[in-house]
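Morning F.,

Quick status update on the modeling queue. The single chain you submitted on Monday has been processed. Sequence for confirmation:
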Amino acid sequence: MLSDTLREGAHGRIFKILFWIIILSFIFAGVGNYLIPRLNTDPVKIGDFKITASDWTEQYNRETQTLQRNYGPQAATMLEDKEFVHELHMKVLESMIDQVALNGATWNSGIRIGDEQVKDVIRRTPAFQKDGKFSNDIYLASVRNVGQSPESYAEQVRVMLLANTVADPVVNASAAALPYESATLSSLFEQQRRVSLYSVDPLALKDTVKVSEDEAKAFYDAHHDAFMDPAKVHFTYVVLSVDELRKSLNVSDKDAEDYFNMHQDEFTLPESRSASHILIKNGEGQKEKVAKVEEGLKTGKNFADLAREYSDDPNTAKDGGALGDVTEGKLADNLSKALFALKNPGDVSEVIYDDYGAHFICLNGVTAAHVPPFADMKEKAREAALAAAARKAYDEQAAKLADVSYENPDSLDATAKALNVKVQDSGDVSYGQQGLEWPLSTQEVQKAAFKEENRTSNQNSQVISLGDGAAAVINVSKYSPEKLLPYDQVKAKAQELAYDDKASAAAVKILSDYEKALKADPKAAAPEKVQVKDDVVVTRGSQDLSPEFAARVFAIPLKPENSGIIAKNGKLESLAVLRKVENSAEEGSDEKTKQAYESFVASQLSRFSASRAQESLYKGARGIQDISYNDDAINMVLKQDNSAAE
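Structure tokens below.
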């Protein structure tokens, strides 16, 4: 029988040899090689170097941490957007390719970085120094804090130096802004244009532009996107807020006093100084007046009398220059620093010069930092105690909100009962809808309501943070997808939009014909429906024109004479004809202001030029490297983004 034959073969010599070959293969190669096919998960290969998925993920995580530091809670919203996350992930990958390609090109050029150069950079890094000297202990602790070994950090520095050896000279040379460049750009930014403006209001053409039923229907058929009924959700929700909890709490005088005694740092008044001030404005005679004040101070004259005689400060001169009590930072930095450097009442600062003029500061008295009596701070202490009690109650209720809504997922009734709040009904809400009762118009609630897992499960959402002092949970009961509204239902809107479209085309035709007439005869009279404004001044920041139209005005070529553009300016179709180009800088602008502006322009130009030079280096480095993308590996990471966002 077959079973007997198999049994006999199992004890045969050949079978045993094959069996042990298989066993040894499993031992040396690993079972995983037989059960799981090996996948290439490296997203990109640049020459002989591979960017691994883990390298990519690590660098992406650093970018998200930077986002969170810079944007705070807003970063969480940004990172819930699939498209944003995809773009950020690919931006990080392309940046890594740029760096690796440049490093590879530099290495292939024969440039090397020695150990002493690496050590020198590490020793000179301020973060690794104590009292101005390198500390090995701080270095080791800092490097390990970011999850690296000293060896890997040193190699990272070596790679950075390698790329900078080539990049820095090129970028620095390119970043230098020449004086004529910044002067020319400044002139362009300050340029203003005078135009003749001819406009036609499409609404004024109702007597000549008519829309038939067929035209309205044709417009509807060609522009379905304008007649969509947006997707809607309907949900119940509960809201928890510090402000509402605060209304239900009471704080007794004893509670307020206890809080005051336990949090005296909150009620400490900082040191204040009574001061007086003399200002001598810039201009003719300033030097002489400063000398007279200094002479008066040397001879022991009263500061208040000198202020009444010489100070140009209209608010304080009549009161002897008295500023009253001021705390550190209340005055301008230079004056505050001078005042708080004085030691004894009666001391006067040296003369201080700034853009406003010459200043003298006199110290009249010092009130040390202190805690006022409770009686003086009673109401402030009561408010602080109430705020603390409300925050404590909120934190406790927020934990209960999360627990109860999770334990009773099918309804918000149990949650509302546990928190002593009402279950509220949203009505129909479309995404982006404004003007609804708070918090229905907030982006946080609307995003949660339209999130697929919430709108399809009929279960409670996770807790939705509405800022530092409020939270909500929703339960979506109904979802209506976007749909095209029937023509009969939107006929009036279709006729209105079709008219706008046809009337705008008619207005453009009127302006085009008139533009031709002006070229033939600059004094040609404007048609009846055309509104005329002569000598309209357009600057880069014009408020009277739409930004888009103003930008189009600055795109009008200087030649031929009286060139023009036709575009929509707000709701009006408009023709702008260029009459004159001039500089918008105010007459009499001092040289110092002009130089400051040109310096600002030069700094921006330098940054732009440096960026372009860096991009050119990366582009050149990529051009001499063999770069291959692994689409499967990249898509695998992007799919993980989708899962995380959902």
